[in-house]
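Lecture 7 notes: from sequence to structure.
We start with the chain below.
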Amino acid sequence: MIEIRFHGRGGQGTVVATILLAKAFFQAGYQVQSFPFFGVERRGAPVEAYVRLDRGKILLRTNVTTPDHVAVQDQTLLHSINVTRGLKPGGWILINSPSPPADLTPYAGFQLAHVDANQIALNHRLGTRTHPIVNTAMIGAFARMLGMPPLEAIAAAIEEDLAADAQSNIEAVRDAYREVCLLGGIG
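Predicted structure tokens for the same chain:
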């Protein structure tokens, strides 16, 4: 079983990212669960959402406390939330940032990747300059980082759920897939 935790802020599409990722994995033959965890439900407030996937039936019905991988949709959360909380050793951390964090010490023992999802979202007119919607760019980078799910499955999930703006979102997925920087293990 693989468990994934997304960190973001209200309005960035964090919950939608996990739903799209779950649908893409389902189309790729996995059993999936996707669910959010909200604190204060308002724009800009920290949000967590989860995806759980397995080739077999998933009987677990609890929150994800020890994820295999983590995605951080807003790099400012790195200063206020311990995004490595419960993360399994060697797990990936994907950060929405044009560059890696200056201090890599908190990420020792994990694998690190980053992508400028804000710029990709802006390039495709997803959201506004002050509030880019980075969710589809993040799942594109995530797919490259893990080597799954296939881009075709992500595109199909987007066409189903985001039909009004599917093409821009699919292009953001593809750009992030190409542009993500995989740093690998941090010692």
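Points to note: The longest strand covers residues 46-54. Strands lie at 2-9, 31-38, 46-54, 69-72, 92-96, 111-115, 181-185.
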